[in-house]
Amino acid sequence: MKSYNVGKQLSFFFIMTFVSILIALILAEVFIRITKEYVTPAIIREKSLLYAASIFARHVFPQHEQNIEGKKEGMRWVINAQGYRGAPFSPKKDANIIRVIVYGGSAVFDQNQSTGDDWPTRVEKLLQIKGLDNVQVINGGTPGHASFDSLGRFFSEGHLYEPDYVLLYNAWNDLKYFSEDRPLLRVFKPFNEKSEFRSTYQGVFDEIFCESSQLYVRLRDRYYRRKYRLGDEGVITDGEYSNQVSASALKQYRLNVAMFVDLAKNIDAVPILLTQARLVAADNSDEDKSRIQYRYQKMQHDTLVDAYHRTDKTVFEVAKSKNVTVIDASSHMTGNGDYFSDHVHLSNSGSKRLAELVANRLAEEITETLL
Fold first, then answer.
1. Residues 73, 93: one domain?
2. Backbone phi, then psi, for 117, in 5-degree steps?
3. Does residue 25 share a domain with residue 68?
4. I want to staple 115 with a disulfide (CB 3.0 to 4.6 A). Which of 13, 23, 78, 204 is the partner?
5. Which residues span the domain enclosing 163?
6. CA 260: distance to chain centroid?
7. How many domains, in total, are found in the chain?
8. Spatial contact of 271 and 166, defined as CB atoms under 8 Å apart
9. 0.70 exceeded by pTM
10. Among 362, 345, 317, which Cα is nearest to 104's?
11. What is the pLDDT of residue 297?
């Protein structure tokens, strides 16, 4: 009889525990649905830029139109049918058009500006004001791309668009490899759509649970962020913060820039190199430093400043050895907090300033050529 009573008590305990957990989950589900925005991977996918895997770069925009609402109210990101940001263009260039392609990562894509106000498009508008109304500027920026991605895209596609001028504006994403002594081949990870968990279901059951429970969606997000170590700019680098710049990584960067220049000359285009403007500077205030995402490079502040200094120096050395133009955006903008929303991405005033610097120098280059 005593054993029977114990059994009843255990059954009652487990039933009450189950019911309590169920009630807690229901309450949590209701709370999330009331207080949080309803999201699923399918909804996020509709609001996100779509990428496709590529052999010559970590990823590309697919060759179909995308019209995405940006993070700020009223901002839109438009991708044309060729897979580039901005207005449509014909792959075959008209004879009277002077075509410029600007390569780089999100700092070229200009993520804080609506399409039409991104700095490469602003360059085109400024050149038209200067009387160069036959100049077409193509925004070849792709978030996440480093100099080797830009080189790969130019080599495997960009040359077919017959550019007259090609600009390279890369550094921040290259610096993510500057604390690595291993060769780029051994550390570079190509695009994997499966890791895009925020916008991609991870199987049939994952889709069912995501569509049924917002609590599951939130817990799922935490789990996959830890699993893939993803932040807003991709994978967060493992290991201790470094106080040294890898000689092999710097050598790789130099080779990327030099090969970009050589490729441009091989197709009779004029290469122009830019130093990258950034918030990162030796005299940053504590407020400035709070806006710099050190976790992607895993460098101490002074080391990051030194690494950037070395990329600037490399750009000038390559330009001198190959007799090409440098637009020194860094010397005009670096460290000015008004020009940046964070470590490298431009504010509206920063976008305008960079467009002015590039347009003024490009106008001189084009005018000299025409004369």
1. yes
2. -115, 0
3. no
4. 78
5. 45-187+239-370
6. 20
7. 2
8. yes
9. yes
10. 345
11. 85
